[in-house]
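Ligand: magnesium ion. Inputs:
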Amino acid sequence: MIAQLWQYVLAGVVVGAIYALIAAGFVLIYQVTGLINFAQGEFAMIGAMTASALATSGMPVFEAAAIAVLVASVTGALCYLLAIRPARAATGVTLIFITLGLDVALRGLGLFVWGTNPLSLPAFTGGAAITVFGGVLPPQAMWVLLTDLLVFAALYLFFRHTYAGTAVRAAVANPPIASTFGIPLRTFAFWSFVAAAAIGGLGGVVVAPITSATYDMGLTLGLAGFVAAVLGGLDSLPGALVGGFVLGIVEKLAGGVLSTGWEQGVGFLILVLVLVLRPQGLLGRAVRRA
Amino acid sequence: MTTPMLEVEGISTIRGRVQVLWDVSLTVQRGETVAIVGPNGAGKTTLVGSITGLVPPKSGRIRINGADVTGSPPEKLASRRVALVPERRGIFAPLTVRENLLMGAYARRARRAELDADLDDVFGLFPALVRYRDAIAGSLSGGEQQMVAIGRALMAKPELLLLDEPSLGLAPKVRAEIFGALARLAERGVTILLVEQNLRLAARICGRAYLMQNGRIVGTETSDELARSARTVYLGSHG
Ligand SMILES: Nc1ncnc2c1ncn2[C@@H]1O[C@H](COP(=O)(O)OP(=O)(O)OP(=O)(O)O)[C@@H](O)[C@H]1O
Ligand SMILES: [Mg+2]
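Predicted complex:
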């Protein structure tokens, strides 16, 4: 029984790591632009589908992965330039509908380009399954966790130890005053979309060998990433990391112990509970609305 | 005659649906220290906002160093060597003191060594900040935060410094410290436009003042006249 639970936890860690990446994208864009980008999951889909399609046509897997991340980043840039920036005078609700529209449009694009059949991506490295205290993980899980480690370390270093990263934090803290010192809010908004798309795309690429890739995978990943981000407070990158892992583990435990139906449902349950009981999330700042 | 540092020419500004500024004009010569005084709601902050671009005027002209900057976005302000010390300080609360100061220099794209020298300069002007160098700015006292806000503006190496009520909510001792620093800046040749409700403080460093009321400039006073009104009209109600 314990061994079985432990196996669920391990499986939860792997999906949780992906949720954390998607959640990081939500947080980045939310922090810099105040916007919840519901198209976030589609960046993962585009990363996963591009890499899988390229690898299927014979490209070495790392090359395919790199190009896929690039394609996802360009998609993020285009989303901002074509859909968000022209509508920046719009109100919050309108912008939410715009990102929901983007989500649908990107999924449609995925369907159009790659069709409905799942594509597969070879694991980055072969080898035997990894055993952790009696539980097993596929070798690709190491790549997933390594990606999380690198992405979150890079984000931490950028925001804490670079001048540009500090300027982004200043822009988040007080946009109008930051602008009087020449800090370019719109440029940062653009790059937040690019970074969120790159990170989401990377998440899709590293998870594709485990889950395989489909044109509609962005929907579930996006929702899970959103729940993880809310769980973490929506304004905290460490919160996104913790939220991702918590959600992943809870999902797999619920799915394993109760029934697979719960695996999907439990995320929404968590979302409702967090919004009602602790709207600032696990690691978010206390409510700052006036 | 040389070009004025700042010329505001007949601006009218609307906030929401309310017209807040009515045909406001003023001139600040290079090297001058000028005050804007007036009661709450007179439109002082809105006037500063129109100069910075945060609240663009609907009509009129604003020139900085002779260049027409009417309606230009706030992002351009720092590169014109103008820096703002905003009302209620507006520091970047989650950043450290040092980070706040460094952000003031964003538009300069200066090198590290140069920035370090400028940081030392600010810490020289406000020795009280030295030991809070790496403290989160939002955790500082009001007076210390005001020093951060002024120091941040100085890091932009401004020719024109706009200050919106830097004495607000501060104890007399801290006010004195801050106005001492402002006096030293004025001696260094920084042009200062100071919004201040405390006439006595304004008279200490400003050569003259514009009086504002209900969104209009209703008069000008020399610093002697200011000091006199501070003694008669406002004695007791201001510190
Ligand atoms: N966003 C806004 N929408 C509508 N009216 C506004 C807005 N902001 C300010 N006002 C109004 O504009 C007028 C001038 O405000 P402003 O802040 O410029 O005055 P002030 O002289 O700086 O006052 P204080 O000394 O209290 O800081 C006030 O009557 C205020 O109510
Ligand atoms: Mg004001």
